[in-house]
């Protein structure tokens, strides 16, 4: 799409394999079901019926309903794990801003925004879609960052980064809260980058309060 950055995306040539067409049809059906019914009310059978396939075929491509939701959040032909996996190749003290830029390049695009709005439309209600997205980011997308950090509290750091990124995307893309929604991507990356950097490499002071309370009680 003009003006949209798709890092790591490869151009397709010719007709897609039949299996890829089937997987894409299932994803399209799942996105429509999530948008209309929400996460809880959507079923694998309903997705299969909408896609015109057997439910067993849905389970062949996706292990669970949560996997369906997560896959539907990713712009077609793009693997965020590959894109974000390159973070470790650059300077550690700029990881936060570079991460913000990459996230916006993936999801702050025409297709990325459409997918987020479709499946996260219930993010502010009891619909657990946002929680599934956070878990997807933590396990699948940002999991590779944990090995780069090589820190004992890497899991906490990655979880904080995932929650911050989801909050940014919901605020900017789903809700459209101004003036954040209208800020240029570069400005957003510069503003959010330092917070992500602190979560990634800064002093989180985790456990300080517990240690102080313990010493006071002695």
Salient structural properties:
disordered N terminus, Arc Repressor Mutant, subunit A, mainly alpha, Tetracycline Repressor, domain 2
Describe this structure in words.
Mean pLDDT is 77; it is low at 1-18 and 208-215. The protein is mainly α and 218 residues long. Helix 1 crosses helix 7 (110-119) and helix 9 (143-149) crosses helix 10. It has two domains: 18-63, Orthogonal Bundle (Arc Repressor Mutant, subunit A), CATH 1.10.10.60; 80-204, Tetracycline Repressor, domain 2, CATH 1.10.357. It has helices at 18-41, 44-51, 55-61, 65-72, 80-85, 95-107, 110-119, 129-141, 143-149, 154-175, 185-201, 208-216. The chain is globular and about 50 Å long. The termini are far apart.
In brief:
With 218 residues, the protein is an all-alpha fold. Helices cover 66% and strands 0% of the residues.
Task: Write the topology of this structure.
Elements: H1 18-41, H2 44-51, H3 55-61, H4 65-72, H5 80-85, H6 95-107, H7 110-119, H8 129-141, H9 143-149, H10 154-175, H11 185-201, H12 208-216
Helix pairs in contact: 1-2, 1-4, 1-7, 2-3, 4-8, 6-11, 8-10, 9-10, 10-11
Biggest sheet architecture:
none
Name given to the CATH architecture of the largest domain: Orthogonal Bundle
Record field, number of beta strands: 0
Q: Could you tell me the radius of gyration in angstroms?
A: 19 Å
Helix content: 55-70%
Average pLDDT score: 77
Structural class category: mainly alpha
Give the percentage of residues in beta strands: under 5%
> Low-confidence segments, ≥5 residues, pLDDT <50?
1-18, 208-215
Query: Can you identify the CATH class of the largest domain?
Result: Mainly Alpha
How would you spell out the order of helices and strands? Answer: HHHHHHHHHHHH
